[in-house]
Amino acid sequence: MSKFKRNLITTALPYANGPVHIGHLAGVYVPADIYVRYLRKKGEDVAFIGGSDEHGVPITIKAQKEGVTPQDIVDRYHKIIKDSFEELGISFDIYSRTSSKTHHELSSAFFKKLYDEGKFIEKTSMQFYDEKAGQFLADRYIVGKCPHCGNERAYGDQCEACGTSLNATDLIDPVSAITGNKPELKETKHWYLPLDQYEGWLKEWILEEHKEWKPNVYGQCKSWLDNGLQPRAVTRDLDWGVPVPIEGAEGKVLYVWFDAPIGYISATKDLTPEWEKYWKDPETRMIHFIGKDNIVFHCIIFPAMLKADGSYILPDNVPANEFLNLEGDKISTSRNWAVWLHEYLVEFPGKQDVLRYVLTANAPETKDNDFTWKDFQTRNNSELVAIYGNFINRTLVLTQKYFANRVPERGELTDYDKEVLAEIPQIVERVEKSLETFHFRDALKEAMNLARLGNKYLADTEPWKVIKTDEGRVKTILNICLQISANLSTLMEPFMPFSSQKLREFMNIDVIDWGKMGDGVIPAGHELGEAGLLFEKIEDATIQAQIDKLLATKKANEMASVKAAPAKENIQYEDFMKMDIRVGTIIAAEKVAKTKKLMKLTVDTGIDERTIVSGIAEHYTPEEVIGRQVSVLVNLEPKPLKGIVSQGMILMAENADGTLSFVSPDKEVKPGSEVR
């Protein structure tokens, strides 16, 4: 790798129509923050750029559903996302937004420059138009039957049931999501970036010059390039976004995929007046952290845009990750199948580093991985608490107990002592090597090896036993353990900044520079601070609550997808009139002995007081039903049940999950009132 003067690190802009979940964190934001914190610890010049992507159709759809403006939606979620990132310790130098004035101005200027230089081609095409709504329909505003799987609610760009990418014209019986009307095809004009003209250059730049890119990134780029590139529209018919800044483009905005990556540039411009040195100086190294769904945009389309302009640098690396699943199922915002960051921060206060640790240890770097709450608990209890936290706690408690909380003088070193001390710089070197090549999971594993080394050294040397016969030897042992502890406060900081700060407070030390790690980082005689627990055990009940929460979500999703049973065959009106349905009041109730489902009810029907046996005992207690008004079929022929003659039937509604609910009047009426 050539030596650069500075680093420009960007993260994919989260879409501001919902909060951030653990899939986003594992794929993009935690690895990016680890890398940035590492570079800063080494004293490098870094600009860490983030922001919310606030344009596009999904935002307008959400606003329409809620009866608010798109600005209301993005303001709400921008704040939620920004605040939760800050609380997790994602250390952006700026977290901006694409609805900002700077972004609109810069995006417009970027488009206008390319337009004036003839870099776009102008084309007319037939697109769906909703006459009633008076507008062209973006892909997400068109729904119909998927030609591949038959899903009745596929969108014009993708079927979420089978995952197939679609064109709106592929849909069977398409309708407008705005009005429900059948749209018509109508001619419209747009501007396109001719990606095919950049195909040869892209092949050279990516396939020949960047063979060091991750195999998943390189492979996806190669596939696209081998299949041939096509011109791609940079404008669309919509009223939410950056207006197209030329005559004859009224009612059109920049396509969100075009303006969003320019958000990196506009955010940098808001960060510093020297923004151009980060974007236009070849001595700057630009790295995009993204998920695999954004590879094409950041490796092919955005570089083509920058190349078309001619004044910008290109990304040096794009270390995209794969996807993180949740409990064996794909994370889905529409199905609420996710662990949301803002909720986690409330439900697990002070445990930001636990989430950062687990997501890094289980990072989907080369393949899709799975997050489970049981694994989360195990990694916390068996690794953070039992290894790292245990080593730190024992070291500090023993130092306090034996040497008045001061770092003891070291005596003569044994061969084992020397081996342990020699291992520190080797571990640091392996961590560095993994971080430099974006193998964050391996880097964390190596960093934890330093805690494992300390834990094993402490267990092997047993200072709590040796103190009885050789205090000088214990001084050496604990001095070495404290050197390891101090090194851990720096080595772990990119991964777990909060616990590293806590550890420094326990040890009463300042930040140790990355390059100064090794032996002798904490002098003899130094007074330590007050020790505490670095991590705490997470109990089964806490984890079960999260699992139950997901199970409730799964059940709600299943219920939402259940269709009502088809209607039975038609009957004559006279057949219905034969049924005498009255409102009755339950005045007594008891479970029927030796049954699970049956309850014996005494009901005032207004005609009489009668006994009815009903199969509701699994859904209600006797105490719950007394006094309830219910609908009773009073002219049903009596029937013996478990030795009790049941004189009628209570009408119940059965939900899709099998639960029962009374069919009752919405306000109290006189018993005997007829149901018609």
TrEMBL record:
Gene3D superfamilies given in the database record: HUPs, Isoleucyl-tRNA Synthetase, Domain 1, Methionyl-tRNA synthetase, Zn-domain, Nucleic acid-binding proteins
Full protein name: Methionine--tRNA ligase
Entries under NCBIfam families matching the protein: metG, metG_C_term, PRK00133.1
One GO location term (cellular component): cytosol
GO terms for biological process, alphabetical: methionyl-tRNA aminoacylation
Lineage per the UniProt record: Bacteria, Pseudomonadati, Bacteroidota, Bacteroidia, Bacteroidales
This protein's UniProt keywords: Aminoacyl-tRNA synthetase, ATP-binding, Cytoplasm, Ligase, Metal-binding, Nucleotide-binding, Protein biosynthesis, RNA-binding, tRNA-binding, Zinc
InterPro entries: aa-tRNA-synth_I_CS, Anticodon_Met, Met-tRNA-synth_bsu_C, Met-tRNA_ligase_1, Met-tRNA_synth, Methionyl/Leucyl_tRNA_Synth, MetRS_core, MetRS_Zn
Necessary cofactors: Zn(2+)
Similarity section: Belongs to the class-I aminoacyl-tRNA synthetase family. MetG type 1 subfamily.
